[in-house]
């Protein structure tokens, strides 16, 4: 994963410049995980991707414009909702930070996820997050 970090960092940085509340929400999510003493199980990159996924799932379109959570509390609640309701054991979480996610990339992530679940003796990591262009590897915890 270390070789892929610079690319992921640039994707997350680009996303953070487009969505003003993303950065503060990601920092709050990391503090919340640390406060519950589980931060060691969630690499920083993974938390950034989880927050971005929460923002994408809670966004809405009005008059052709895309709106993301506009406050820190709304973004943090979207993050908590994602953690509480997403089926991490049954499906991969695909995070499309810059709109490159085609149907083929989604299928590739699904195939990689299924292969990982079948190959690992205990089903693999608790959760797997995929970004377009990196669907064969994923970020996990």
UniProtKB/TrEMBL annotation:
Per UniProt, which keywords does this protein have?
A: Nucleus, RNA-binding
The terms describing its cellular component in GO are: CURI complex; small-subunit processome; UTP-C complex
Domain (Nrap protein) spans: 21-131
- Sorted alphabetically, which Pfam families does this protein's record hold? Nrap_D5
Query: Which InterPro entries did the record assign?
Result: NOL6/Upt22 (IPR005554), Nrap_D5 (IPR035370)
Could you say which protein family the record assigns here? Belongs to the NRAP family.
Q: What is this protein called?
A: Nrap protein domain-containing protein
Organism whose genome encodes this protein: Phaeomonas parva
């Amino acid at each position: 994963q270390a070789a892929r970090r610079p690319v992921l960092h640039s994707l997350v940085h680009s996303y953070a410049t487009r969505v003003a509340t993303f950065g503060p929400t990601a920092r709050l999510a990391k503090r919340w995980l640390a406060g519950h003493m589980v931060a060691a199980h969630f690499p920083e990159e993974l938390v950034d991707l989880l927050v971005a996924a929460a923002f994408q799932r809670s966004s809405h379109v009005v008059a052709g414009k895309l709106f993301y959570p506009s406050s820190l509390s709304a973004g943090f609640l979207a993050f908590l909702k994602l953690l509480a309701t997403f089926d991490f054991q049954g499906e991969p979480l695909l995070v499309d930070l810059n709109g490159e996610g085609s149907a083929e990339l989604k299928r590739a992530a699904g195939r990689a996820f299924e292969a990982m679940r079948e190959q690992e003796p205990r089903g693999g990591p608790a959760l797997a997050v995929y970004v377009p262009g990196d669907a064969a590897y994923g970020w996990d915890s």
